Structures are given as C-alpha cells and as structure tokens.
Amino acid sequence: VKLVILGGPGAGKGTQAQPLCRHLGISEISTSNILREAIASNTELGRQAKIYVEKGELVPDPILIEFVRNRLTQPDATVGWLLEGYPRTAFQAEELDFLLDDLGLELDWAIYLQVTAAVMMSRCLGRQASVGEASATSLKLRLDDQPQIIQRRINLFYERTMPMLEYYEYRQRLLTINADQSPQQVQQEISQKLHS
Ligand code: AMP
Question: At the N or C end, where does the chain have fewer CB atoms within 10 A?
C-alpha cells in the first residue's frame, strides 16, 4: 500500500506514521528526518537545505524531488511506503503524481490529520520543552521549534499545504482524520477508514 500522511506541525504525523507502518509492514519515509540527518552529517543536500529548515521555510522543490525519487526506487520501497512530510504543497502533490506515473505506481490514500492551529502550537511548544531537557545535539536539530518559527510553519501550512487537500479530495484519495484525539484514538480512526 502506498500512502502519504498530511497535517500541520504537531498534528502527529511522526507519532502515527511509526505504528501504522509497522502494522502494514511498509517503509516509513520522512523527508524532515532525512533533511535533519543530512544537515547533521553536513552532506551537500544538507548544506543546501539547512538555511531553509532553520528558518522554518520550505526547502526548494528541486532538492526534494530528487531525494524522493532516490528513496522510492530503493529495494524496500517495493513492498509499499508511507511518505511523511512530502508532499507539502499542491505543486509537490502534482510532482509526486508525475514521479509515481513515471515509476508505474499509484498512490492509494492521503491521510490528513486535522487539528486546530491552537493544538499545533501547544504540541510544538510541548515538544520543544521535552527536547530542551534532552542532549545538546537534539536541541540543535530542533532549532525550527522556536515559537516564532513554529508560527511561521503554521502559517505556511495554511497558505501552502491546505490547498493541496483539494487536490487529493478531487481525486477521491483523501481520508480526513480527527487528530485532536489521543494518539490511540487517532490510530484507531486511521485503521477503520483505511479498511472501510
Ligand atoms: P517537519 O518536521 O515535517 O515540519 O519539517 C521540518 C522542516 O523541513 C520544514 O520546516 C521544512 O523546512 C523542511 N521540509 C520538510 N519537508 C518538506 C517539504 N516537503 N517541502 C519543503 N520543505 C520541507
């Protein structure tokens, strides 16, 4: 099964992606994790992406699509996957469809974790507090969780990501989930909607 998981910062994409992938036996592909790893290990891609990630800005499309193409053509991707953090704009959604077309694949579902802006903000601030207690390295990796940067990421979600939902809705690929519930309840709702 081939899935994407969508939602604003703090919507719970990472939290839901892990158990869902384990349950379905598919690979979890998170663009933000890969970007953070690339930044930490100072690769060429990492250096290019760093300035954008640290400001909460979107990383330019040409950098990301190449990476997604590489990742989706690796052997473990044949069993299925869940993309997390990509696509993030209507343009990226279209670009992903072109790429899948090229690879002879088709997306099954776009799972949208719907939460309010207030929940996004409070969950991101909570995450920042817990990271603050952790090591200096992880603190450095989460520079993008500072309050004004969080606000910027939330605004970007409304401006750039919301329009993408229409793209999937029009194609009857959108599963909207109430993600203001507990992680277990969200997990249950996803399973129910995927199997109905
Ligand atoms: P996230 O933790 O998913 O909110 O991603 C953290 C940061 O990585 C974002 O604020 C962006 O700078 C960058 N990023 C991740 N995925 C994408 C994407 N699909 N397009 C552009 N930038 C991205």
Answer: C
pLDDT of residue 139: 45
Helical H runs in the chain? 13-24, 31-40, 44-55, 61-72, 90-103, 117-133, 136-141, 147-156, 162-170, 183-195
* Alpha carbon of 39 to ligand 1 centroid (Å): 12
Q: Alpha-carbon dihedral of residues 20, 24, 29, 32, nearest 10 degrees?
A: 0
pTM of the entire structure? Answer: 0.86
- Kindly list the protein residues whose Cβ atom lies closer than 6 A to any atom of ligand 1: 9, 31-32, 35, 52-53, 56-59, 64, 85-88, 92, 144, 153
Give ∠ CA 13-86-136 in degrees, rounded to 5.
60
